[in-house]
Amino acid sequence: MEPLAHLPRPSTPPPPRSLGAILDAALDLLRRHWVLLVGLCALVQIPAAFAEAALSDEGAARDLASEQPWPAAALLFSVLALPVVTAAVTDACGDFLHGRATDAGRALRRGLALAPRLLVTGLILVLLTVVAALPLAAVVRSGDALGPARVPALALAVALLVAVGVRFALLTQVVVLERRWGPAALVRASRLVSGQVLRVVAVYVVAGLLMGLIAAVAGLALADLPVFAPVAIGFVQALAFAYTSAVGVVLYEDVRARRGEQADGAPPLTPRAGA
Questions:
Q1: Neighbour count for residue 144 (Cβ, 10 Å)
Q2: Buried-most residue among 20, 93, 112, 260 (CB within 10 A)?
Q3: Are 265 and 178 in contact (CB under 8 A)?
Q4: Residue 151 and residue 157: Cα distance in Å, rounded?
Protein backbone atom coordinates (compact mmCIF):
# COMPACT_ATOMS: atom_id res chain seq x y z
CA MET A 1 0.00 0.00 0.00
CA GLU A 2 1.32 3.44 -0.96
CA PRO A 3 2.64 5.60 1.91
CA LEU A 4 0.44 8.61 2.54
CA ALA A 5 2.76 11.56 2.11
CA HIS A 6 2.53 14.87 0.32
CA LEU A 7 3.19 14.84 -3.39
CA PRO A 8 6.39 16.25 -4.82
CA ARG A 9 5.34 19.13 -7.06
CA PRO A 10 7.02 21.70 -9.29
CA SER A 11 8.54 24.62 -7.40
CA THR A 12 6.40 27.24 -9.17
CA PRO A 13 2.59 27.16 -9.42
CA PRO A 14 0.88 27.15 -12.82
CA PRO A 15 -0.55 30.49 -14.01
CA PRO A 16 -4.15 31.25 -12.98
CA ARG A 17 -6.79 30.10 -15.46
CA SER A 18 -10.07 31.61 -16.55
CA LEU A 19 -13.31 29.68 -16.08
CA GLY A 20 -13.24 28.47 -19.67
CA ALA A 21 -9.58 27.50 -19.38
CA ILE A 22 -10.32 25.41 -16.29
CA LEU A 23 -13.07 23.51 -18.10
CA ASP A 24 -10.84 23.08 -21.18
CA ALA A 25 -7.90 21.84 -19.10
CA ALA A 26 -10.12 19.28 -17.39
CA LEU A 27 -11.48 18.16 -20.76
CA ASP A 28 -7.96 17.79 -22.13
CA LEU A 29 -6.99 15.78 -19.05
CA LEU A 30 -9.95 13.48 -19.62
CA ARG A 31 -9.26 13.21 -23.35
CA ARG A 32 -5.66 12.11 -22.81
CA HIS A 33 -6.37 9.66 -19.99
CA TRP A 34 -10.01 8.69 -20.48
CA VAL A 35 -9.42 4.94 -20.41
CA LEU A 36 -8.05 4.98 -16.87
CA LEU A 37 -10.27 7.72 -15.46
CA VAL A 38 -13.56 6.56 -16.97
CA GLY A 39 -12.67 2.94 -16.27
CA LEU A 40 -12.20 3.67 -12.57
CA CYS A 41 -15.46 5.63 -12.39
CA ALA A 42 -17.28 2.80 -14.17
CA LEU A 43 -16.56 0.57 -11.18
CA VAL A 44 -19.15 2.64 -9.32
CA GLN A 45 -21.47 3.90 -12.03
CA ILE A 46 -22.21 0.73 -14.03
CA PRO A 47 -23.26 -1.40 -11.02
CA ALA A 48 -25.31 1.56 -9.79
CA ALA A 49 -26.98 1.85 -13.21
CA PHE A 50 -27.87 -1.85 -13.18
CA ALA A 51 -29.30 -1.52 -9.66
CA GLU A 52 -31.30 1.56 -10.63
CA ALA A 53 -32.70 -0.18 -13.71
CA ALA A 54 -33.70 -3.23 -11.68
CA LEU A 55 -35.28 -1.20 -8.89
CA SER A 56 -37.29 0.84 -11.38
CA ASP A 57 -39.02 -2.32 -12.61
CA GLU A 58 -42.34 -3.28 -11.12
CA GLY A 59 -41.89 -5.87 -8.41
CA ALA A 60 -38.17 -5.15 -7.90
CA ALA A 61 -38.78 -4.53 -4.21
CA ARG A 62 -39.85 -8.14 -3.84
CA ASP A 63 -36.71 -9.30 -5.65
CA LEU A 64 -34.48 -7.62 -3.05
CA ALA A 65 -35.85 -9.91 -0.36
CA SER A 66 -36.34 -13.03 -2.44
CA GLU A 67 -34.42 -15.13 -4.92
CA GLN A 68 -32.88 -12.18 -6.81
CA PRO A 69 -30.93 -10.03 -4.34
CA TRP A 70 -28.41 -8.89 -6.96
CA PRO A 71 -29.78 -5.33 -7.36
CA ALA A 72 -29.17 -4.71 -3.66
CA ALA A 73 -25.72 -6.29 -3.93
CA ALA A 74 -24.83 -4.09 -6.91
CA LEU A 75 -26.04 -0.99 -5.11
CA LEU A 76 -24.11 -1.91 -1.95
CA PHE A 77 -20.95 -2.47 -3.99
CA SER A 78 -21.32 0.98 -5.59
CA VAL A 79 -21.76 2.65 -2.20
CA LEU A 80 -18.75 0.88 -0.70
CA ALA A 81 -16.58 1.53 -3.77
CA LEU A 82 -17.50 5.21 -4.06
CA PRO A 83 -14.95 6.66 -1.56
CA VAL A 84 -12.19 4.41 -2.93
CA VAL A 85 -12.90 5.35 -6.54
CA THR A 86 -13.32 9.04 -5.68
CA ALA A 87 -9.92 9.10 -3.99
CA ALA A 88 -8.31 7.04 -6.76
CA VAL A 89 -9.62 9.24 -9.59
CA THR A 90 -8.73 12.46 -7.78
CA ASP A 91 -5.22 11.14 -7.06
CA ALA A 92 -4.78 10.04 -10.68
CA CYS A 93 -5.94 13.44 -11.98
CA GLY A 94 -3.39 15.10 -9.70
CA ASP A 95 -0.65 12.88 -11.08
CA PHE A 96 -1.63 13.43 -14.70
CA LEU A 97 -1.97 17.19 -14.27
CA HIS A 98 1.63 17.36 -13.05
CA GLY A 99 2.99 15.01 -15.70
CA ARG A 100 3.46 11.99 -13.43
CA ALA A 101 2.67 8.54 -14.73
CA THR A 102 0.26 6.25 -12.89
CA ASP A 103 -1.89 3.21 -13.57
CA ALA A 104 -5.16 1.72 -12.36
CA GLY A 105 -3.53 -0.55 -9.78
CA ARG A 106 -1.51 2.22 -8.20
CA ALA A 107 -4.47 4.61 -8.21
CA LEU A 108 -6.73 2.03 -6.58
CA ARG A 109 -4.14 1.20 -3.91
CA ARG A 110 -3.85 4.86 -3.04
CA GLY A 111 -7.63 5.23 -3.15
CA LEU A 112 -8.04 2.30 -0.78
CA ALA A 113 -5.50 3.82 1.62
CA LEU A 114 -7.15 7.25 1.50
CA ALA A 115 -10.79 6.12 1.63
CA PRO A 116 -10.96 5.91 5.47
CA ARG A 117 -9.62 9.46 5.78
CA LEU A 118 -12.08 10.64 3.15
CA LEU A 119 -14.95 8.92 4.95
CA VAL A 120 -14.08 10.33 8.38
CA THR A 121 -13.69 13.84 6.98
CA GLY A 122 -16.91 13.46 5.03
CA LEU A 123 -18.79 12.40 8.16
CA ILE A 124 -17.59 15.53 9.95
CA LEU A 125 -18.81 17.59 7.02
CA VAL A 126 -22.19 15.84 7.16
CA LEU A 127 -22.49 16.75 10.85
CA LEU A 128 -21.64 20.38 10.08
CA THR A 129 -24.21 20.37 7.29
CA VAL A 130 -26.88 18.98 9.60
CA VAL A 131 -26.12 21.70 12.15
CA ALA A 132 -26.26 24.34 9.41
CA ALA A 133 -29.62 22.96 8.27
CA LEU A 134 -31.22 23.33 11.71
CA PRO A 135 -32.16 27.02 11.22
CA LEU A 136 -33.79 26.17 7.90
CA ALA A 137 -35.77 23.35 9.48
CA ALA A 138 -36.85 25.65 12.30
CA VAL A 139 -38.04 28.33 9.88
CA VAL A 140 -39.95 25.81 7.77
CA ARG A 141 -41.63 24.29 10.82
CA SER A 142 -42.57 27.71 12.17
CA GLY A 143 -45.12 28.20 9.42
CA ASP A 144 -46.63 31.68 9.59
CA ALA A 145 -45.57 32.27 13.20
CA LEU A 146 -42.69 34.53 12.09
CA GLY A 147 -45.01 36.78 10.12
CA PRO A 148 -43.21 39.24 7.80
CA ALA A 149 -39.84 38.04 9.09
CA ARG A 150 -40.36 34.55 7.62
CA VAL A 151 -39.08 35.35 4.11
CA PRO A 152 -35.80 37.02 5.20
CA ALA A 153 -35.31 34.31 7.85
CA LEU A 154 -35.81 31.64 5.20
CA ALA A 155 -33.34 33.38 2.88
CA LEU A 156 -30.71 33.61 5.62
CA ALA A 157 -31.18 29.96 6.58
CA VAL A 158 -30.79 28.83 2.97
CA ALA A 159 -27.74 31.09 2.54
CA LEU A 160 -26.12 29.50 5.60
CA LEU A 161 -26.62 26.01 4.21
CA VAL A 162 -25.28 26.99 0.79
CA ALA A 163 -22.29 28.71 2.39
CA VAL A 164 -21.29 25.49 4.13
CA GLY A 165 -21.38 23.60 0.83
CA VAL A 166 -19.31 26.23 -0.94
CA ARG A 167 -16.71 26.67 1.80
CA PHE A 168 -15.86 22.98 1.64
CA ALA A 169 -16.17 22.51 -2.11
CA LEU A 170 -12.47 21.56 -2.38
CA LEU A 171 -12.46 19.21 0.59
CA THR A 172 -11.94 16.04 -1.46
CA GLN A 173 -8.94 17.54 -3.22
CA VAL A 174 -7.40 18.62 0.08
CA VAL A 175 -7.82 15.16 1.63
CA VAL A 176 -6.47 13.31 -1.40
CA LEU A 177 -3.81 15.62 -2.81
CA GLU A 178 -2.49 17.11 0.43
CA ARG A 179 -3.02 14.02 2.61
CA ARG A 180 -4.83 16.07 5.27
CA TRP A 181 -7.96 14.82 6.96
CA GLY A 182 -10.41 15.54 9.74
CA PRO A 183 -10.67 19.09 11.13
CA ALA A 184 -7.32 20.06 9.57
CA ALA A 185 -8.69 19.28 6.10
CA LEU A 186 -11.88 21.23 6.78
CA VAL A 187 -9.93 24.30 7.92
CA ARG A 188 -7.59 24.06 4.94
CA ALA A 189 -10.46 23.69 2.44
CA SER A 190 -12.27 26.67 3.95
CA ARG A 191 -9.17 28.84 3.74
CA LEU A 192 -8.55 27.83 0.14
CA VAL A 193 -12.00 28.96 -0.96
CA SER A 194 -11.79 32.24 0.96
CA GLY A 195 -11.82 35.04 -1.60
CA GLN A 196 -12.55 32.59 -4.45
CA VAL A 197 -16.19 31.79 -3.69
CA LEU A 198 -17.70 33.12 -6.92
CA ARG A 199 -15.08 31.40 -9.08
CA VAL A 200 -15.55 28.06 -7.31
CA VAL A 201 -19.33 28.26 -7.55
CA ALA A 202 -19.24 29.29 -11.22
CA VAL A 203 -16.91 26.46 -12.22
CA TYR A 204 -18.87 23.76 -10.41
CA VAL A 205 -22.25 25.08 -11.59
CA VAL A 206 -21.21 25.22 -15.24
CA ALA A 207 -19.49 21.82 -15.14
CA GLY A 208 -22.41 20.28 -13.23
CA LEU A 209 -25.01 21.66 -15.64
CA LEU A 210 -23.01 20.50 -18.65
CA MET A 211 -22.50 16.98 -17.35
CA GLY A 212 -26.06 16.79 -16.02
CA LEU A 213 -27.44 17.73 -19.42
CA ILE A 214 -25.29 15.16 -21.19
CA ALA A 215 -26.29 12.44 -18.71
CA ALA A 216 -29.98 13.33 -19.00
CA VAL A 217 -29.95 13.30 -22.81
CA ALA A 218 -28.02 10.03 -22.86
CA GLY A 219 -30.42 8.49 -20.37
CA LEU A 220 -33.42 9.37 -22.53
CA ALA A 221 -31.73 8.17 -25.71
CA LEU A 222 -30.49 4.88 -24.27
CA ALA A 223 -33.34 3.99 -21.94
CA ASP A 224 -35.08 1.70 -24.46
CA LEU A 225 -32.01 -0.33 -25.40
CA PRO A 226 -32.48 -3.95 -24.32
CA VAL A 227 -29.93 -5.33 -21.83
CA PHE A 228 -27.19 -2.88 -22.78
CA ALA A 229 -29.00 0.24 -21.54
CA PRO A 230 -27.56 0.08 -17.98
CA VAL A 231 -24.05 -0.40 -19.36
CA ALA A 232 -24.38 2.54 -21.74
CA ILE A 233 -26.00 4.79 -19.13
CA GLY A 234 -23.41 3.78 -16.54
CA PHE A 235 -20.62 4.57 -19.00
CA VAL A 236 -22.02 8.06 -19.64
CA GLN A 237 -22.37 8.65 -15.90
CA ALA A 238 -18.80 7.43 -15.41
CA LEU A 239 -17.67 9.90 -18.07
CA ALA A 240 -19.46 12.71 -16.22
CA PHE A 241 -17.98 11.58 -12.89
CA ALA A 242 -14.46 11.51 -14.37
CA TYR A 243 -14.83 14.95 -15.94
CA THR A 244 -16.22 16.51 -12.77
CA SER A 245 -13.31 15.01 -10.81
CA ALA A 246 -10.84 16.45 -13.30
CA VAL A 247 -12.53 19.85 -13.04
CA GLY A 248 -12.19 19.70 -9.24
CA VAL A 249 -8.47 19.01 -9.42
CA VAL A 250 -7.78 21.73 -12.00
CA LEU A 251 -9.87 24.18 -9.97
CA TYR A 252 -7.97 23.25 -6.81
CA GLU A 253 -4.67 23.99 -8.53
CA ASP A 254 -6.03 27.25 -9.94
CA VAL A 255 -7.24 28.43 -6.53
CA ARG A 256 -3.82 27.75 -5.02
CA ALA A 257 -2.12 29.57 -7.89
CA ARG A 258 -4.32 32.62 -7.30
CA ARG A 259 -3.36 32.52 -3.63
CA GLY A 260 0.30 32.60 -4.63
CA GLU A 261 1.07 29.25 -3.03
CA GLN A 262 3.97 27.09 -3.99
CA ALA A 263 2.98 23.99 -5.89
CA ASP A 264 2.78 21.67 -2.91
CA GLY A 265 0.48 23.94 -0.91
CA ALA A 266 1.99 22.63 2.33
CA PRO A 267 5.36 21.97 3.96
CA PRO A 268 7.14 19.30 1.90
CA LEU A 269 7.18 15.81 3.33
CA THR A 270 8.55 12.50 2.13
CA PRO A 271 7.59 11.81 -1.50
CA ARG A 272 5.33 8.85 -2.17
CA ALA A 273 6.98 5.66 -3.23
CA GLY A 274 6.45 4.87 -6.87
CA ALA A 275 5.37 8.40 -7.78
A1: 6
A2: 93
A3: yes
A4: 10
